[in-house]
Amino acid sequence: MAQHVAGSQKVVEGAAPGLVHNEQRVEHGLQGGPATHAGMVPEPGSGGMVGSVAGPSGQAPHGMAAHEQAIPAETAVPVISAEERERQLAAEEMRLRAKEEKLTKHADAYVEKKQRDAQAHVQHEIAKADKNAEKAISKAAHKEATVHKKVEQKLAQAEQDRKKAEIDAEHRAAEKKAEAQQEAEEMIAAAKEKAEAIKRGDEVPEKPSAIKKIFGMA
């Protein structure tokens, strides 16, 4: 085993830098772990390794070179410090907070606009209703005034007709009274004249019934 370890050390000294890690894995296998030398491949069913290792010239055999080409090269992963990570998280939090504030402002502005529109609509409807009410009141007042005026006109006309009827009745009564008075005066004058004629003997007195007839008493 010591000879194998020495041979392995020669391989490490003469091999390319990419094979050093593999030789360390071989050494780990000699210390009790599984041997995974790059130049060896597991033999089917045996559990052992077959193949050759690098020669004294330091050049890896053909099988080892092919195996090294199959292993992907290790890529360098950037290491982020805790401070950088905290800074990135704080920046992301600030970005999300700014976005949230912007959306909140937009939402508040939208709600305010809707409230203003609704209030303006309500005020417009109230003004419209007030205007219609004023029109209705004005129309009713005009109609009432017209009716009242017509009633007053009818009352005035009736009063005029009453006064005219009274005047006409007074005139008719006066005319009848004048006619009756004139007729009475004429009858009295005729009776006096007849009485004078009787006194003179020019006429014969008539019967009382005739006298009553003259005076309309019969």
UniProtKB/TrEMBL annotation:
Residues 1-63, 142-182 are annotated as: Disordered. Residues 142-180 have a biased composition (Basic and acidic residues). It comes from the Eukaryota. This is Uncharacterized protein.
